[in-house]
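pinned: reference chain
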Amino acid sequence: MSKIITNNITPRSGSSVGLTGDLTASGNITGVGGTFSGPVSGTTGTFTGNVSVGGTLTYEDVTNVDSVGVITARSDVSIADKIIHTGDTNTAIRFPAADTFTVETGGSEALRVDSSQRLLVGNTSPRSNAPGADVGFQIEGASGGPTNKRFTQHIFGSGDGSGPYVGLAKHRGTSVGGNTIVVNGDELGGIYFQGADGTNFKQGASILGFVDGTPGTNDMPGRLIFSTTADGASSPTERLRITSAGAAIFKGGLAEKYENAGTTLGAQSANPLSDGNVILFTGNESGNKTINFTGVHATLSNGETVSFTAIITPNNSGVINVVQVDGQAITVKWSGGSVPTAGASGQDIYTFQILKTGTGTSDYTVFGAATNYA
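pinned: its structure tokens
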């Protein structure tokens, strides 16, 4: 074997140095650009220019590829198992099976999209309907086609059966004790809120259900019902029904809060809708008064209405003669055609019906009436 010992190889002008065999180096290979038709092996190769590979570039026994910049792939990037975060093997995107990928954090699976196109958060597989088994959030696609809106329970809360937790009952089913709710013989799907005892998901539950509607339309009446027995064996009691026409039907008594202002209307002219629709003022009023109902314009839409009742002590002097809606004075259509007079004693009770007739701040019609209760 012959050797060439030199510090520099310089080709003649317009020529190049060609090697038809292998080039083997025990030190570094450094170049400003070059083409090698055979294999190049050595401890380190450094190129200050571009390196072009026409075939396949294969790394033998390489455990890491370190790039100080962005790696751009013009087509697919193929990996054997997972993508990990630098320095954190507990955080990874994994491809454990065909048509499935998962996201792992803290060494545990946090999210899965499986081959059935289900998104499972905190679950490695679809959960059972037992309350004690359901933790986190689960979405499953419909089965049986788009006309059969069948879903399993979706649970937020405790997985040890102790509750409380929130779930979504499936639209159709066969069992009262499972995850089907029955009201007056009708199967009910909806949202329920489990109490502290998780032995039966209907125990102590408040359930907002949707029944009797046509899937895929806006005709979806709803019911608000409550369980009446500890074991959930009996059908829950219906308290409120919203019909497809938008009417609310209360199955029990209706209690309404009122605001005890603790002062006179003269001292508190602004009265928020959020404080209640009935306001009791105390103390003797005197002279003409303005009442301002606030929080109305932002709440009502065109075609909606709200009513207020104001109770004052007139003392033969105090009278409400101006009504404002969020600071905008509105002409009142008074019962009898004129502003009422103050009662001599007792309380005067004013009722106002406010109708929103447009979108502007003055687009209101107000009807008012007053009655003296001595």
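why pinned: The chain has a mean pLDDT of 73. The two ends are 128 Å apart (CA to CA).
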